[in-house]
Design brief:
Blueprint lengths: L8 H14 L2 E4 L14 E6 L10 E5 L4 E10 L6 E5 L6 E4 L4 E10 L8 E4 L4 H16 L15 H19 L6
Antiparallel strand pairs: 1-2, 2-7, 3-4, 3-7, 4-5, 5-6, 7-8
């Protein structure tokens, strides 16, 4: 989900500076990649955070080449010399590997529009079923890391057990995405 601010890279710098000075920010979102967790027209409340401080399952804002993006942290790749954070939108399957320094803020609350003007509600963003799933999967992955292979075989092919595990994981993601509340 791209944030409805501007296509200028300067926007990310201004948001980061505002967060540093005031300790919070509120911005409107557009797009559907985080649906139903975040919907078009909702406003999100942000608190500054370093990428290393994020917990798996949390929703954060990070910089890309031209946009600010808001997605859920689904994995932390901590094993190599350059750690990477893996983000994904709740509505799409594409994952993005991001440098922790690109993270600007954590989403802490959502303003849901009301039926009439002035009837908006601000709701704290608490871990949902998908956040708990990603946290459990990451914890299990860290526990099993000593016995799992360190890298793919040279030909890059995954065996039947690996394919089955990936398929099971993807199915669980889709099912849990359906369980997310449509309206907060």
């Amino acid at each position: 989900m791209r944030l409805n601010l501007s296509d200028e890279p300067l926007t990310a710098e201004l948001l980061a500076e505002a967060l540093g000075r005031t300790g919070s920010a509120v911005i409107a979102v557009s797009g559907i990649s985080m649906h139903p967790t975040l919907q078009f027209g909702w406003r999100v409340y942000l608190k500054p955070v370093r990428g290393e401080e994020l917990k798996v399952g949390e929703i954060a804002v990070f910089r890309t080449d031209r946009y600010l993006t808001i997605h859920r942290l689904v994995w932390k790749e901590l094993d190599d010399a350059s750690p990477r954070l893996v983000f994904r939108g709740d509505y799409n399957r594409m994952r993005e590997r991001v440098d922790p320094a690109a993270v600007i803020a954590r989403v802490v609350a959502v303003e849901v529009p009301g039926m009439k003007k002035g009837m908006e509600r601000v709701i704290a963003l608490e871990p949902d079923a998908l956040a708990r799933f990603y946290r459990a999967a990451w914890f299990l992955g860290r526990l099993l890391r000593p016995i799992l292979p360190r890298a793919l075989p040279p030909d890059g092919r995954v065996g039947p057990v690996g394919r089955a595990a990936r398929s099971l994981f993807a199915s669980a993601e889709r099912i849990l995405s359906l369980l997310l509340p449509d309206r907060r």
